[in-house]
Amino acid sequence: MVSQQIPRHGGRLVVLAMAALLLMPLAGMAQAKTQPEPLLQQDIGLLERESKARAAIAKEASPAVVNITVEKKATAEQTSSSDAPNPFNDEFMRRFFQGQIPAPPHDPNVHGLGSGIIVGAQGYILTNNHVVSGADKITVKLPDGRTFDAKRVGTDPATDVAVLKIDGKDFPVAKLGNSDEIEVGESVLAIGNPFGLDQTITAGIISAKGRNQVGVAQYENFIQTDASINPGNSGGPLLNLKGEVVGVNTAIYGNSGGNMGIGFAIPINQARGIMKTLIADGKVVRGFLGVSIQAVGPEIAGAMNLTPDQRVLVSGVGPGTPAAQAGLKQGDVILTFRNQPMQSVNALRYAVASVKPGDSVPVEVLRDGKHVQLNVKITEQPKDMVAATSGEGQGDSSAKDAAKSVLGMTLQALNPELAARVGSKSDHGVVVTDLDPNGPAASAGLHEGEVVLEVNHHPVRNVREVREQLARARDKKYVLLLVQAGNADRYVAVRNG
User: Which DSSP category does 120 fall into?
Assistant: First the structure.
């Protein structure tokens, strides 16, 4: 009807224009039908290249990833009962160590599996402390089938790092990356020996950084990943897409003993520093400041009129400590340490521990609204940090030494601060603050940070009560301890002597 009211040529133009408009979507549809095929081919090519790249990374890195087998003599209770607990399974359920391979009833040894990373052509191997802790024999198997007896170069329970050595030369060496450069969301690969399945490779991403309070070690700064890792992966590498080691797989989240999509790895920069110290000195010496610190929450920040970046509050200063001698006071807010901003309790703990004893460092604090500059001479970290910070046991060296002799471990009565630090909700018990690696407690599988609740079924509240129960059991070869790690309780039989 519209075409009849306009000039014929104009109508034709309108019709043609309309026709063109009608045809345009059809042309677009036709074009759309022809485009997906080349785009799909491009996508497939991209996936193929990505797949080949992962395979190349795994192929290059695998020769430097080893299988670690450990043996430990079973206790009398374990050899006399088929239902006796395996001490290697007594690790926190979050830990990877252990292929969980039960020893045959007639076998006097208990066996466990883990992984390791060759970091030196002369046979140096980086792994976790909990993989080799308490082991009587350590065997390393290379991917090419060669096996070696390994010896401990040094261990650091505070970070769960250990270094082993096998005899030989020209071993394949893993490339170590820079864990400070990794970003959340990056793709990673994990290589290890879960459940004894050699050279298992899984893929995932970095889900978070700087995780702490996991309950595995004293100093925690974990990389979190969803790469599938399971018991036996402990000590194996977490790799970036350059084939570089950015982390040492250490723990898993959950109580099933298997992968739940959340795993933790020690950043390689941290592990590398510990490794170098262990190779050079056989042990790690850390700095000591001598303060109790707490995080500043919203309520405290409001009460003290603090800004969001002022987060580390001094809740106590140990008498005679470097902090006390430098003039730090209860109620100070630590702003910088060694000229670096301190915005978390964890950051300060790491910063202090990394200072060489004897060095003096500048510390800036906020006191009564004013900035105060101090200079602190750091000393060596004592065996019992809690006692040194609180001042307990000072002037009574005999009492302190007696506490150290309790089954080869230093114990401290549980208090609110300690309970928060180790994640315990118990109203009684004693915390293991230090272990003699060759003592009966360490040999039985106890770890720093665990809480002893009972001795031979008797609840204990301090070291004196522990010693009283041990005195009553002096004629027994073993004593039974009820031990708490996080929210899990377990019984441990410890040689009495």
Answer: S
